Model the fold of this input.
Amino acid sequence: MLEIKNLSSGYDGPDVLHNIDLEISPGSLVAVIGANGAGKSTLLRTISSLIKSRSGSIIVDGKDLTNAGPGSMVSHGISHVPEGRQVFATMTVAENLDLGAYRTSKQVAGERLDKVLEIFPALKERLSNIAGALSGGQQQMLAIGRGLMAEPKYLLMDEPSLGLAPIVVQTIFDILPNLAKGGVGVLLIEQNGQIALSIADRAVLLERGHITIRGTGQELLKNPEVIERYLGVGNSIGANPEKQSVMSVRIRTALGPEDSGLFLRTKSPV
Ligand SMILES: Nc1ncnc2c1ncn2[C@@H]1O[C@H](COP(=O)(O)OP(=O)(O)OP(=O)(O)O)[C@@H](O)[C@H]1O
Ligand SMILES: [Mg+2]
Done:
């Protein structure tokens, strides 16, 4: 279990995160949704020890790793895929993936590579390509693949859908629940609340650094306050009809036939 207790952190100024309590069990997918600047990325950076927490604790499988440093978090099974598809553009796909497996033997790295290429077959054909020449979707797959090369117990994903075509978004969001089913604890940060909530076991709404609503993914999808403020017209998918149709199918499937009317009543994109 990854336990975040009463966590506060920030940069030079005042606290950005305030008293965050959150638990991620192995095999579950937890989504954090919230507006621009709410502190979502800051939360992941604090968990992976890229920035220091000012109070509270981060406990990984019973071990207190508060402010243990990024290397220690990685070696205790925390893998952070940052926002913005940060691949090493001038290195090959294979080299990028290999970097994710540092501190492991060649043999183990090879076994992990096979697993990652099974999840992302598109990378298999491009192992010797320069990462900077990949499409946005392939780069995101590479960034996730590199995170998986550490064979994490807990995967922290920052906005994997950002700027990607709907079909690629769908591929990536199909993979995340499968990773969770395979035993990984996935913490998924998303501005695109609908799709994240539709695949999440549990979810929280982060507003100005505070968790204000928590529940199952389904509960948040149906929560009138969440719908009004985060899932309505004008949110990140509202303007793109193609994206809307992909999302609406997924949300309807997640909600079942009885509940999908709720979205029509609230004039949301579906
Ligand atoms: N490197 C930094 N130095 C100083 N302040 C920062 C830094 N990164 C973020 N902040 C501030 O912390 C607050 C939370 O930012 P954060 O990036 O965590 O939000 P977010 O929820 O991830 O937003 P977005 O959806 O735009 O990615 C904002 O007020 C932001 O200006
Ligand atoms: Mg962010």
User: Anything to note?
Assistant: The two ends are 35 Å apart (CA to CA). The beta strands are 2-10, 15-24, 29-33, 53-60, 63-64, 78-81, 154-158, 185-190, 202-207, 210-216. The chain has one domain: 2-265. The first strand starts at residue 2 and ends at 10.
